[in-house]
Amino acid sequence: xxxxxxxxxxxxxxxxxxxxxxxxxxxxxxxxxxxxxxxxxxxxxxxxxxxxxxxxxxxxxxxxxxxxxxxxxxxxxxxxxxxxxxxxxxxxxxxxxxxxxxxxxxxxxxxxxxxxxxxxxxxxxxxxxxxxxxxxxxxxxxxxxxxxxxxxxxxxxxxxxxxxxxxxxxxxxxxxxxxxxxxxxxxxxxxxxxxxxxxxxxxxxxxxxxxxxxxxxxxxxxxxxxxxxxxxxxxxxx
Length: 238
Fold this sequence. Notes:
This protein is an all-alpha fold. It has 9 helices and no strands.
């Protein structure tokens, strides 16, 4: 570094320096708020599931979805796509909270069949799938935070992959074939891509007043990862 460059480094504009520090602090606060809301959403999801199982209402929900496993999977994919759309468009704080609460409740109902089946036929699958989900989410999040890489290019992959998943579900319904292990593996990969994309967007792109919407997008990705990892554990027990 030349003497002139050292001089510039030492006496650079203090206003610009202060502005940069304020922006960094604001982004860090936004990230903390986002992950706090994600944690609360997961707790709310677990609480709703516990309430449904404790009261026996899970059996009623299971009967409602009986014989419609493809409908459950389709509803899960569609709700995830809607959640992603809402997370990137809604500006009102009240609407962000409404969307997050509604999505957590909807997921709690959608998860009832697979959790009920797992609790009866493969009791250890639920905690095992939960642990793998936590480790996978932590690893993918660490990749983004450590590398600082921009994963916005994965947006197209997530959208196209979700559309392909709906096509596969529709084909399975029309031609009466099962969506086997290959589908769950592909969806786990799609969930991983979604986590990378959303985490990158949280670091770089989201306005700092949309931490609720950002947590909604992350919750959608984590729920997808857990759902299909649990399906893989159940397939392994068959």
